[in-house]
Every structure is written in structure tokens, then in C-alpha cells.
Specification:
The complex is a heterodimer of chains A (409) and B (89). In chain A, α11 links the parallel β15 (331-336) and β16 (364-369). By secondary structure, chain A is α/β, with parallel strands linked by helices. In chain A, 51% of the residues are buried. Helices cover 39% and strands 20% of the residues of chain A. Helix content of chain B is 11%, strand content 18%. Chain B is built from 2 helices and 4 strands. Chain B starts with 30 loop residues before the first strand and ends with a strand. Classes of the chains: A alpha/beta (409), B alpha+beta (89).
């Protein structure tokens, strides 16, 4: 049943802090880094005011912050942290450890360009760097979605068939520092929706059968021991399976959440606009989707059959859903807010081309890299992309497969 | 290889499903400590220094648990009466 919600003027960062406040989180460990700082600043205020019972640990580095979350999550606590760019880079070692220990930590990533040169503004190079780290990755379009997604993230990660950490992405400054009207659910509704974290059980013969997968002196388990060629591979298969399971879980929770909030984001994996009859379309992540949609709206008014697919879930990659949604599109432009350095293209482009390989007819797929270091992707540039796609559609000629949009010659 | 389990059978997260004592870790030793019981004065300095708790003391005699001894030689080095000799495996 849909409930009454209050509207608050919140920045994306504040929306994260509010969601975490309502999710009955046991432990938050963090280290400040622009543009993520407001998240932990606000949250530490909630702690200081006694508004939450969360244990708040101000760490000496991001590596320590995520390590502290690993320890707390292994005990069975619901844990949260947040970071950006170089903070995430410093966490790197523990990013992989958190997922391989199957700890459903939720981490907000405020997307920021990686140094160097030092830049505090948005691009997706930081989170794209750990796209193969076995973390679920959800990219948000606005502050409302940020709030909603953080709440959903705990349910997704803690699902018995998933048990993986979740990254919730919001574009640095564009979302993190921009105020927006955000609808906030009542505390008790969120509390009921997320419930209490219930650890999964594992079969341990020396403890006489099934025990919760948590550190407990009464039922001792060894977390993180040496795992060589005879079992490491098997453990990685389990992570792969968990990721495969996550698609359905993300869809179900998106649906369930819509029943209480009245809001859903496509099917949880992708969100489409104008694709029913589109001949040309783009794939885009994050806040740029809003700009793209407004340009598409204008183009469609002018008779251009344009559409857009916003990729909300990048990990696990919704291959089947993307192919189905774009099956009638003839020319696809993939917008990537991270560099291709030495690759054939940037990450979203590469995966998109791969999933269309077996399709007949196979669409033309080209890559547009944009917005590195916070370079503005204004409607004019988006229009330029669609003009290019339309030209390819009409002439059949592809100048280059990778184009860099908005960079000065 | 037949005794190895498949990926659906083992607990997730890489937690051990056997006690650590079931993993015999002494198989990569190059030198093996041999205690000369005639020289041993039962001071238990070897027991104190052994980093792997591989020295056993049953109240009468000091011995080495070769299932876990890695052959590091610290016991031989610390023995005040040179009762322990490191012998090539």
C-alpha cells in the first residue's frame, strides 16, 4: 500500500544520509573525500544527535574504512560506507575482499574523476574501474532515485541468493551537491521494508551442521583463509552465480518498493524512453539521462525516431533486457563517461557490442566518450550525438567507432 | 582429485568447513629438527620459541609434531645445549 511521504529539499549526498538513517544500519565507517563528504557529515550529525543507534567509526583512511566494514559485516552487522574516486582507489584491495567474503555492505560512490591531474568533478572512471570486482553496481539519475536505491540496496545485497556488496552511484556535484525535492518515506515504513539483516547459513561438519555465516566465538568459523588452485575457482563460480541471481532480485525489489512508494525505475535494470518505434538510440548512465531524455523529446517532436535506454544496473549487466529493448533500433550510440585508454572502446560500449554479436540483423553500435573530469554534457552536445546517429542511419557510413564529445581540438 | 567437492557443495565466502588441524602443513619442510633426548635438559625453550606450536611436551619428553613443523630451525638455534640438529629431509 502506498504511504504518505514528506517532501524535503535535499542534495544527493543528503538523500543518501537520510536513507541510511532510516535503514537501521548497525555500523558506518568512513573517511571524508569530496564530493562524498556531506554524506558522512550529515550522518555523523544524526549519530551525535542520538537520532540513530549506529556505531560510527571515523577512520584514518578509506582502506581502513572498508576494512572496518568488512569486520563488522562479518559479525552480522548491517554496514554502510561511502567514498569517491581516489578514496575508492585506496580501498581497492578490500573492495575484492568484501565481495569474496560475501558481505552485503552498501557503499555510496559519488562518481568523481580519478587523479591525476587532480579533479574533483564527475566522471565514471572510479566505479568503472571495479566493474569486475563482483559488486552490484546501480547508477542513479537524480537525488530521489539515490534515496530510493540506497534503501533497496540493503535488500538486494542481503538477499539469501545474492549475498554480495552493493555500490550505489551518484554523479559528483551534479547530484551530490544539487538540491532537489525528495520524497521521504516514514521511518517505520522503511524499517519494515528493509527488516533486520538475517545471515545465510552454511554447512560446517565440525560444528555439527548448518550455522549462520557470521563470526561467533560460540560457533567459530575461519573467514579469509588461504584458498589455492584446488578451491579458489569454485568460490569464484559461487560469486558468478550470485551475480546471475541478482538480476531477478533487483527487479523484484524495484517492484516491491514501488508498492509502498509509488516510484519505480524501469524494471530496476533498465529504463527506456521512446524505444517503441526508435531507429536511433543511446545508452546512458546516471544524471546525463535526464538531459538526453529532454533532447530525445524535442527530436521526436520534430519527427526523428529517437529513443534512449538508461542503464540503471551495470553489474550484473542486463544483457537480455538491453537486446530486447533495442531490437528494432538500427543505430545505437553508447555514451561512456570514462576513458577507453588502450581499449577498443569504453566499458559500456564494449559490453553492448558484445551482446549484439549474435543478433540478426545486427545494429550499428558506436561509442561516444563524454564528460571526463566533469566536462558539461549540455543539450547541444547530446543533439550533436543524435545528429551523428541520424547521419549514420541515412548514409550507412561510420566515420569512427569511438568519438570524443565535448573535447577541444 | 576425486575427493574434491564441486562449487555447489562447498560453503560460500571461502570459510573453512574443516578444522585447521586437519590441514597437515608440515609437508614443505627442507630440514627436519631431530632432538637428541640424551642431551635435552627439558628447559622447553624450543616449546616457547616454536612459531607453529609444533613442539610437544607430554610431561616427560620433548618431541616434534612433524605434521605441522615447517623446519624453520628456530628451536635448534635457541636450544641452550644444542640438543636439536637440523637434518636434510
Amino acid at each position: 500500500m502506498m504511504v504518505k511521504q514528506k517532501v524535503m529539499g535535499l542534495s544527493g549526498d543528503e538523500a543518501v544520509a537520510w536513507a541510511v538513517k532510516q535503514c537501521d544500519v548497525d555500523m558506518v565507517a568512513a573517511y571524508p573525500i569530496t564530493p562524498q563528504t556531506i554524506i558522512v557529515e550529515r550522518f555523523s550529525e544524526f549519530v551525535a544527535n542520538g537520532e540513530v543507534e549506529t556505531e560510527f567509526v571515523a577512520c584514518e583512511s578509506e582502506h581502513s574504512a572498508l576494512s572496518a566494514c568488512v569486520g563488522a559485516a562479518a559479525v552480522g552487522a548491517r554496514t554502510f560506507t561511502a567514498t569517491a574516486a581516489n578514496g575508492l582507489a585506496l580501498m581497492w584491495e578490500i573492495v575484492y575482499i568484501a565481495s569474496s567474503l560475501r558481505l552485503p555492505i552498501v557503499m555510496a560512490i559519488v562518481n568523481r574523476a580519478l587523479s591525476g591531474p587532480i579533479c574533483i568533478h564527475c566522471d565514471h572512471g572510479d566505479s568503472m574501474g571495479c566493474r569486475d570486482a563482483s559488486w552490484i553496481q546501480l547508477y542513479c539519475e537524480d537525488a530521489q532515485e539515490v534515496y530510493d536505491t540506497v534503501i533497496q540496496a540493503f535488500r538486494i545485497g542481503e538477499h539469501p541468493k545474492v549475498q554480495l556488496p552493493v555500490m550505489v552511484m551518484l554523479d559528483g556535484f551534479v547530484l551530490s551537491h544539487t538540491l532537489q525535492n525528495v520524497k521521504i518515506l516514514p521511518d517505520e515504513v522503511v524499517k519494515e521494508f528493509v527488516g533486520v539483516r538475517k545471515p545465510v547459513e552454511v554447512e560446517i561438519p565440525y560444528l555439527g551442521g548448518k550455522v549462520p555465516l557470521v563470526l561467533d566465538p560460540e560457533k567459530p568459523l575461519t573467514f579469509g583463509p588461504l584458498d589455492l588452485y584446488n578451491y579458489y575457482y569454485e568460490h569464484k563460480m559461487q560469486q558468478h552465480e550470485a551475480m546471475e541471481n541478482a538480476r531477478e532480485v533487483i527487479e523484484t525489489i524495484n517492484e516491491e518498493y514501488s508498492k509502498i512508494s509509488g516510484r519505480k525505475y524501469g524494471n530496476g535494470l533498465i529504463e527506456t524512453y521512446g524505444l517503441e518505434d526508435a531507429e536511433i538510440a543511446t545508452i546512458v548512465l546516471g544524471s546525463t539521462a535526464g538531459t538526453v531524455r529532454s533532447v530525445v523529446k524535442q527530436l521526436r517532436k520534430n519527427g526523428i525516431k529517437a529513443g534512449v535506454l538508461r542503464l540503471r544496473t551495470f553489474r550484473p549487466f542486463p544483457a537480455k533486457e538491453i537486446v530486447e529493448a533495442l531490437k528494432n533500433v538500427k543505430v545505437i550510440g553508447v555514451l561512456d563517461r570514462s576513458g577507453p585508454f588502450g581499449g577498443y572502446g569504453a566499458p559500456v560500449f564494449l559490453e553492448t557490442r558484445a551482446i549484439f554479436y549474435d543478433e540478426d540483423p545486427r545494429p550499428v553500435i558506436v561509442n561516444y566518450v563524454y564528460g571526463l573530469g566533469g566536462r558539461d554534457m549540455h543539450p547541444g552536445l547530446v543533439k550533436q550525438v543524435y545528429d551523428d546517429l541520424q547521419k549514420i542511419l541515412e548514409t550507412g557510413k561510420i566515420e569512427r567507432h569511438i568519438k570524443f564529445i565535448g573535447v577541444r581540438e | 582429485m576425486s575427493e574434491l567437492k564441486g562449487w555447489r557443495e562447498v560453503p560460500i565466502a571461502g570459510v573453512c568447513w574443516k578444522l585447521s588441524t586437519e590441514f597437515k602443513t608440515g609437508d614443505w619442510r627442507t630440514f627436519k629438527p631431530i632432538i637428541d633426548q640424551n642431551k635435552c635438559i627439558k628447559c622447553l625453550m624450543c616449546w616457547v620459541y616454536c612459531p607453529d606450536e609444533a613442539i610437544k611436551w607430554d610431561g616427560e619428553k620433548v618431541s616434534v609434531n612433524y605434521d605441522f613443523c615447517k623446519g624453520c630451525g628456530i628451536c635448534a638455534n635457541e636450544c641452550p645445549v644444542k640438543a636439536i640438529e637440523m637434518v636434510l629431509e
